[in-house]
């Protein structure tokens, strides 16, 4: 079955397509409605999945137009459509993994364009621009498309990402330091490392609401297309992991810390992790004290698991009983 939409006016056009067990919205949004603009959005679906593609073109007189041709999953406040009301919107502190799987993503165009994810974190409902705490714009591939000056960088999803911000506002831009290939596949591209990066920089509080995920292209001029052979959204609940430092006399060490996957976790700090994922825990260096061992527990029931004598260990996180998470307690002399 082929679904298609040829759209020439300046307003928003949308339709939905089913991909296996998920429904996505495809829509065209033009920011300058006075400009004549032609876009073709289409989806090819079959019993085993779908192939979604988008193509757009406009005349030279349309140079400078900005549009957003994208696929959307979740609640789209602009269009008033929710493709997944059982899961979206949600408070970001409820989960620790929001990822997408995409196969054979291709983009091509002349002129200026950017292929990107776009997510909005809201302080509260209603989901209007006035209530946006942060917009996360992830520029995967771009051509002659400006990004802000990078203020920092970090590693996530197998790549190093720059982070910058346009002005003092809410728009945060992330882009890879190494260009992605012409055709690429993502298996489990997780947005939470980027969300946590904003949390570590106090750009968000951790109590924001995420409505959904846009994926598409923002052209400025020229013509081009993007397509993906599959697109699937994964959302998994997180469990708390509690970091604690004590000496052998059972006294607290509030100046102590652990490293979890290389990131510092301070005394009594709780982080969110996903059962079944693997993480590396390393004891921090504490002046006047020497590391002796770790004790691992399910928490907050404080059900004992085992003892680890190495100062660094890699742990495939077991599924805790009930609503428990984990506690990792480092003991020092």
The gist of it:
By secondary structure, the protein is mostly beta strands.
Could you characterize what this model shows?
The chain is mostly beta strands. It folds into 2 domains: 236 residues, Glycoside hydrolase family 11/12, catalytic domain (Jelly Rolls), CATH 2.60.120; 94 residues, Immunoglobulin-like. Helix content is 3%, strand content 59%. It contains 1 helix and 28 strands. Strands 2, 3, 6, 7, 8, 10, 11, 12, 13, 14, 16 and 17 form a 12-stranded mixed β-sheet that branches. A hairpin with a 5-residue loop joins strand 13 and strand 14. It is elongated. The N and C termini lie far apart (68 Å). The relative contact order is 0.16. About 2% of the residues have low confidence.
């Amino acid at each position: 079955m082929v679904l298609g939409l040829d759209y020439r006016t300046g307003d928003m056009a949308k339709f939905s397509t089913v991909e296996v067990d998920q429904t996505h919205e495809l829509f065209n949004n033009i920011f300058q409605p006075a400009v004549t603009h032609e876009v073709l959005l289409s989806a090819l679906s079959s019993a085993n999945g779908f192939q979604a593609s988008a193509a757009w073109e406009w005349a030279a007189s349309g140079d400078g137009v900005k549009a957003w041709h994208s696929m959307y999953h979740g609640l789209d406040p602009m269009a008033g459509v929710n493709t997944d009301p059982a899961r979206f919107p949600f408070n970001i502190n409820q989960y620790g993994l929001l990822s997408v799987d995409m196969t054979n993503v291709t983009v091509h165009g002349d002129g200026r364009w950017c292929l990107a994810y776009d997510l909005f974190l809201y302080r509260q409902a209603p989901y209007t621009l006035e209530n946006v705490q942060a917009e996360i714009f992830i520029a995967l591939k771009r051509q002659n498309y400006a990004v802000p000056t990078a203020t920092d960088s970090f590693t996530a999803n197998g790549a190093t990402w720059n982070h910058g911000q346009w002005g003092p506002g809410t728009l945060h831009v992330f882009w890879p330091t190494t260009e992605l290939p012409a055709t690429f596949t993502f298996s489990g591209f997780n947005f939470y490392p980027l969300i946590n990066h904003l949390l570590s920089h106090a750009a968000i509080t951790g109590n924001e609401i995420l409505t959904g995920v846009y994926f598409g292209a923002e052209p400025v001029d020229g013509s081009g297309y993007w397509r993906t052979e599959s697109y699937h959204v994964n959302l998994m609940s997180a469990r708390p992991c509690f970091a604690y430092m004590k000496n052998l006399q059972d006294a607290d060490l509030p100046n102590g810390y652990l490293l979890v996957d290389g990131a510092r976790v301070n005394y009594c700090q709780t982080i969110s992790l996903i059962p079944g994922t693997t993480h590396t825990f390393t004891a921090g260096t504490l002046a006047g004290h020497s590391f002796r061992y770790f004790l691992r527990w399910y928490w907050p029931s404080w059900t004992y698991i085992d003892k680890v004598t190495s100062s660094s260990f890699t742990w495939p996180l077991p599924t805790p009983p009930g609503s428990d998470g984990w506690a990792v307690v480092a003991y020092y002399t």
